[in-house]
Amino acid sequence: MRLLLVLLVNLLLSCKPSEMASATVPNPESSPAGPVEGYRVTRVDSLNSVYLIYAKKNNVTYKIVSDKAKSAHCTAIKAGQNYNFDLTSLYSSTAKAPAGTRYVPTAMAGNLGSKGIDWDGKGTIITLEGDSIRDIFFAKNVVGLCLK
Questions:
Q1: Whose CA is closest to 62, among 75, 53, 50?
Q2: How many helices, marked H, and strands, marked E, lie in the chain?
């Protein structure tokens, strides 16, 4: 019995802490099939003349705006699929709207900042969403619901 106890203590002491930690803590960036690539589209909505594509990457939700347009010879964007979007923030100081669109921040709400953007200058307001979505993006490689 004493020999068994000594063997058990030696076994526990010989394990490296990093090996024990890696064996018990799952990696949030991987799945059973390996690392997740691109952005996972969780939902697609429509508002007036735009599509709103909600996508997640690294536990961050992105709200992507795309003008409604049809495009041939492309990959159709669908919820539940992963895509490599080329995103640009509409709130960065160097952001430029895609050709043919005009966006301006809407009225300020105290010290909370902008409520969203007026996408087309005609009242199509793309809003921020509380704590979950604090920025709005457009993807240079998306036309309508097509990945180019």
A1: 53
A2: 2, 14
Distance in angstroms (rounded) separating the CA atoms of residues 92 and 62: 14
Give dist(CA 138, CA 65) in Å, integer.
5
What does pTM read for this prediction?
0.65
The first and second tokens of residue 27, run together, are 């990696």
Written as one letter, the residue type at 40 is: R
pLDDT at 61: 93
Contact by Cβ (8 Å): 67, 144: yes
| Averaged pLDDT, groups of 10, the chain, 148 residues long | 56 48 37 64 94 94 91 90 92 59 46 66 82 86 93
Query: How buried is residue 7: exposed, middle or buried, by Cβ count under 10 Å (0-12/13-18/19+)?
Result: exposed
Whether residue 69 contacts residue 142, with contact meaning beta carbons closer than 8 Å, is answered with: no
Pure H helices in 47-144 = none
8 A C-beta contact, residue 148 and residue 142: yes
> In this predicted structure, what is the pLDDT of residue 146?
94
- CA torsion sign for 39, 76, 136, 44 is negative
